[in-house]
């Protein structure tokens, strides 16, 4: 690993730790994030982790660009992943059904798996939260197995219901709020993924681990889910 520092803006630097996405990156990313927060202290405005990078937004009135680079160098010196640091574990109930997951049939044809097999394969795996973005509380998770991977839709939908669970390439995610989106939808979760009253707002954070648990429609509704069918043409 050879970290690189790139200029993003006058008060933002991007620390690139890796060139490819891999689940093994996450312990190093978490350790780097912790070190950067310590090194910058109150001079840090925001720290945004992603799959392979961390964006450091610092107070330009407190630090010069050269001082910011020096603090990054200090934070990454003798970097080592923690053996005890671990994110939280989440289990998200999901109602997998064509009415709320219209791409179930498409992914079934692409993979050669039956719809029940596809659901089982998606829900059996534990996923790592790599990053938050796109919408408040939207957690990019992976990696789905190769057989389930699928490109984004050619034409994104104008409206995707909150809680919709989807796949894009080897990533999976659940939409926290109603928004446009181009992921392949396979189901819906009743879990509240974004809450302004929650500390940190998002249910999930980078480094957390997630499992999807298949539930029947009755259980989905009991948990507060909205079973309004998705308008496929939207």
UniProtKB/TrEMBL annotation:
PANTHER family: 5-OXOPROLINASE SUBUNIT B. It holds the Pfam family CT_C_D. One of its GO terms (molecular function) is 5-oxoprolinase (ATP-hydrolyzing) activity. It comes from Pseudomonas idahonensis. Residues 3-204 form the Carboxyltransferase domain. Keywords: ATP-binding, Hydrolase, Nucleotide-binding. This is 5-oxoprolinase subunit PxpB. The keyword Secreted does not apply. Transmembrane segments: none annotated. The keyword Hydrolase applies. Its EC number is 3.5.2.9.
């Amino acid at each position: 690993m050879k970290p690189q520092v790139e200029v993003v803006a006058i008060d933002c630097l991007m620390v690139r730790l890796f060139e490819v996405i891999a689940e093994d990156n996450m312990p190093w990313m978490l350790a780097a994030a912790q070190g950067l927060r310590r090194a910058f202290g109150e001079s840090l405005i925001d720290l945004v982790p992603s799959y392979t990078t961390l964006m450091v937004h610092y107070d330009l009135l407190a630090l010069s660009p050269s001082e910011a680079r020096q603090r990054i160098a200090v934070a990454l010196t003798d970097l080592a992943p923690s053996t005890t640091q671990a994110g939280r574990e989440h289990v998200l109930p999901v109602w997998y059904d064509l009415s709320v997951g219209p791409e179930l049939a498409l992914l079934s044809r692409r993979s050669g798996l039956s719809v029940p097999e596809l659901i089982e394969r998606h829900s059996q795996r534990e996923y790592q939260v790599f990053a938050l973005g796109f919408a408040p509380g939207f957690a990019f998770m992976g990696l789905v197995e190769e057989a389930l991977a699928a490109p984004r839709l050619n034409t994104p939908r104008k409206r995707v219901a909150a809680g919709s669970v989807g796949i894009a390439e080897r990533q999976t995610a659940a939409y926290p709020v109603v928004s446009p989106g181009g992921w392949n939808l396979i189901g819906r979760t009743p879990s509240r993924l974004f809450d302004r009253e929650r500390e940190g707002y998002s249910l999930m954070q980078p480094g957390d681990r997630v499992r999807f648990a298949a539930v029947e429609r009755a259980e989905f509704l009991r948990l507060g889910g909205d079973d309004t069918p998705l308008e496929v043409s939207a």
